[in-house]
Structure formats: structure tokens, C-alpha cells
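Anyone have C-alpha cells for Transcriptional regulator, BadM/Rrf2 family? Sequence:
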Amino acid sequence: MILSRTTQYAIQALIYMATQPPGVAVLNRTMAESLRSPPTYLAKILQELCRGDLLYSFRGKQGGFCLRERGDKINLMQIVRITEGPGFTEDCVLGLKVCSEKTACPMHAKWWPIKQEIVKLLQSQTLEMLAARVVSGKYQLTDFPGAVLHEQRDASSS
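Reply: yep, here.
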């Protein structure tokens, strides 16, 4: 709806990583398979998140990606700022170059308070909170309910 597919994949991947033990690197292809996302596209997104200081990237046999900080330290707004850019909170909903109280578009008065609520919501949701909901089994991370959870159980029982 308001988040790009890039941002949706980024959030899904980071929630997936937050369900893993701290410091464990996850391969791009493992996440792409679990999340049913295109691996090449996901790799580009993960590199962008590395440049945004949310992830570490490791090369080699034990390579992959892992969170730089614990999941309780990363909120969704941090991810959105990286993937959507600063325009997410600043741009006009109708695409006008200048839109403010002084030079408002026809949607400004109605959209501005909604946008502020969306920002507050994104700031209040941490990866740890969302990962816990997925791990509980009550919520899903992909269109394939339980896919991520089953793969984690299978891996932990090996």
C-alpha cells in the first residue's frame, strides 16, 4: 500500500534474521527461499541495509548476513528511511514538489496527521517484537504460513 516491495522484502528479511540466534550469519539464498523472494533482488536490498549500518555482511564459507544490533534496538522506521529514503516522511502524497501548511495540496490537511501516525507506528515496532510474534506461530512472515517457523525447527533438530 504505502511501502514499496523493496521495503517489504527488507522488513521481512530483517524480521527473519531477528528470529535467528544472535550473531548467526544467514545466507541470502536461505532467506530468499524461506521468504519466497527473488535472491538477486534480496541480495541488493541486504547490501543496501549493510550500507545503512543495520547489517553485517560476511564472505566465505561461514558467510552471510546478520544484524549489527539486537532486534530490540532496530525499529521499522530505521529500515524505511534506508529503503524509501527521506522522502517517505517529507514528500507530498500527490507528488507536488512543494507542499506545506503555506502551500498545501488538496490532501495536505487530511494526510499530514495520518502520515505522522504512520511514522509513530513504524518507530514503535521493533524487530524483536515482530520476530516474537512470528515465532509464536500466531502471525506469518510469508504468504506460506509457518514456512519460516518450520525451517527453523528443522534446522534446530538437526
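The first strand starts at residue 55 and ends at 58.
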